[in-house]
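Minutes, project check-in
Item: structure for the 426-residue chain
Input as provided by the requester:
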Amino acid sequence: MTEENKRTRRANGESAIYFGKDGRWHARVPMGYKDDGTPYRRHLTRPSRKELVDEVRKLEKQRDEGSARQPGKPWTVAKWLQHWVENIAKPVISENTYDGYEVAVRVHLVPGIGKHRLDRLEPEHLESLYRRMQSAGSKAGTAHQAHRTARTALGEAVRRGHAAKNAAALAKPPRMEEDETEVEPYSVDEVQSLLLEVNKRRNSARWMLALALGLRQGETLGLRWSDVDLANEYLKLRRNRLRPKYEHGCGEAAPCGRKAGYCPARVQVRRETKNTKSRAGRRAVPLPGPLVVMLRSHREAQARERATAGNLWIESEYVFTKPLGGPLSPNTDYHDWKRLLEDAGVRNGRLHDARHTAGTVLMLLGVPDRVIDQIMGWEPGGAARMRARYLHVTDPMLKEAARKIERAIWGASENLAVDKDQNNEV
């Protein structure tokens, strides 16, 4: 054996390179420690020393940068996504956010790219998935949700050393079509038509809180009477109503055969409300006089319902309840909104469009941006972006701008005089 081929003693942390009895060059590269605290070394072998040294240097660089694969069997994309959503993301995110992630993982990402090795996933694999999703009928927004979920999950994999790059951060999601993102707020005339119909319905104040103040669905349904100060004409927003989630309570011995939400013995497994997560979301909102009157009337009507229901009444302290008490279901609330639009003869729209309407009306009335941000619950850092998204330039605003230009350039009084002269000549 030549001097070059001899194994030499290395200092701790250095790679060992030696010539083996099999006629090949070998290396042991220290990579850190396993979960049980024992040292972890990667074994490399190449036919020539030069090839081996090049590979060792690449691996050492990955190790030092924190991008080298960790010990153990390589993750598949499916196993990583399922581990991430249940064990890493779920304990630290809201229930609604988890629901979105879980659906994207289970329905789209695992069936679409789950068989790939995590450290070999490429941007092209994701872009191919997005195209297949759209070919199967999914909207671009659904593909975007899958893309955002993958980007978050793979970013965590990179931080933990399970992958060298975030393929989703490099992939190009499909273009969002304008008709999927553009919202047309309701006009003042449409809001007044809704108001006429609202006054005929139970829980009428619920809808005016959305149309006049832009409260989110969860914020409105999560309101309790302790949050409402009618004497000082304001309310405090501190929590959100969550969508109920149920599990079967019928037992395996006598299954009901229905979905969990329709099981006669269903058990709710999700809390009713959660605290608003952002400081801007926890806010005081002023109540216009007519809304104060509506809420006073609503409280009296609720007291009559409680007295009529007697022992059947479910006490909950919520401002808006079912006829027998207890919190309103977001799903029931959504269908009530659709019936309201139909009965009022107003074009169909999302419940969240009422929030766009309220923000636009506040802008139309000249309310300062800082006050709009407070009422709408927007964080200072992202308020400008949210105003650009929610505050819409309407036709009346454009016409008013045209009239101002007319007065400034042509002069309104001169135009009126010219028009009168022309009419007299005719």
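Outcome recorded: Strands lie at 16-19, 25-33, 39-46, 228-229, 234-237, 239-241, 246-247, 267-268, 273-275, 283-286.
No further action items on this chain.
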